[in-house]
Description:
Helix content: 40-55%
Oligomer: single chain
Bound molecules: pyridoxal-5'-phosphate
Amino acid sequence: MSTPTKILLEESDIPTHWYNIVADMPNPPTPPLGPDGQPVSPEALSAIFPNAILEQEMSGERWIAIPDEVREAYRIWRPSPLHRAHRLERMLGTPAKIYYKNEAISPAGSHKPNTAVPQAFYNRQAGIMRLSTETGAGQWGSSLAFAGQMFGIAVRVYMVKVSYQQKPSRRSTMQTWGAEVFASPSEMTKAGRDMLAVDPNNLGSLGLAISEAVEEAAGRADTNYALGSVLNHVLLHQTVIGLEAKKQFAKIGAYPDMIFAPCGGGSNFGGIGFPFLADKAAGDAKAKNLRVVAVEPISCPTLTRGVYAYDYGDASGYTPIMKMYTLGHDFMPPGIHAGGLRYHGASPLVSQLFHEKLIEAVAVPQLATFEAGLMFARAEGIIPAPESCHGIRACIDEALRCKQSGEPKTLLFNLSGHGHFDMAAYDRYFAGGLEDFAYPSEAVTASLKHLPKVG
Length: 455
Ligand SMILES: Cc1ncc(COP(=O)(O)O)c(C=O)c1O
């Protein structure tokens, strides 16, 4: 019999531990640096993060136990199904076998609750009753609002203004889960007011919204900050995706040759890819030729066109500096519809692995991602988030190469979220109103001039 369409696991198969790739990296990760150019101490960050999270951020342990309370909340939607995309394969006429891990089935509709839930849990455990955060597309803000409800924590979200205007339903989703939502730049913080003084019509960026949320958390003893991507602990939490996928492939006696995932800050990419890279690090023969590919927009090409340097995580320079691929912290990406991929940097772990050539990256244009999203939706029925369409595009391109070469490769992509709140973007695509922004070389060059000086 052919492979089933859905490969399912039991609740008892939800991983008991997260996988920490730091234990298997050829070189130790570069530390974040403070204003004095020295590695930041955990104490310096304890104003905005609980100790349990800081320990995970700095940990070199390979396996970190998932608390029972978190596994209990994960049960609402995990384990997520692994699908075999039989219909997409037929539509493409490819000999490749295409699989996707469906993270769209979480309450918020993406992979983001995988880390929102533990972050809310550890903050509540530390006695924190309030969290501030930023959101671009609205996926992260919704996820933290939901997770806040799981553990009785109030959540305030600074939402990038362009998304606040484009996505009223995301705002009401967050409000349904009890969060307060403000358009960023806002009048609530110095970072927001400074930007509005210069440019009253500024549509915001993820970097600026991070500045607002961090400023609020740093200035209030009762409030901590939660980040939806980039940092080590976030990628750690997301490894439930890849750990489950490995069990699902084992169940059908298969293993991917290539893995694709969209890459904004890098969390769903790390989540699906790192557990497979563990097999490679362990010298497992089946992973010998495995290729793991991060997919980003041509208009915000952090890994493929950025520089590997120390930079701030936010636009205003409030965060420690981290060594990562960056387009410059004050780079304002064009208003593409994959809001979650409009970030100037990439996770330091993903950046280091890319720098050391252990993973690959490609950049794809906006229109081609929507084309791929439509093919997927029409074949498989699920409408993907614009971010997810990037991974789908690269996977379809590989499946078409297989059609040319006749290779029956096994391909896996992460369906990081559904697009039900992104129909305005699909409408623009149908109306012919979406454009392919070119690589914004002048804006990047200007922004890279402002990289912080190190050493
Ligand atoms: C559905 C979806 N996919 C991917 C991303 C990109 O983020 P990351 O690179 O952290 O996975 C986002 C971010 O908001 C998202 O909402």
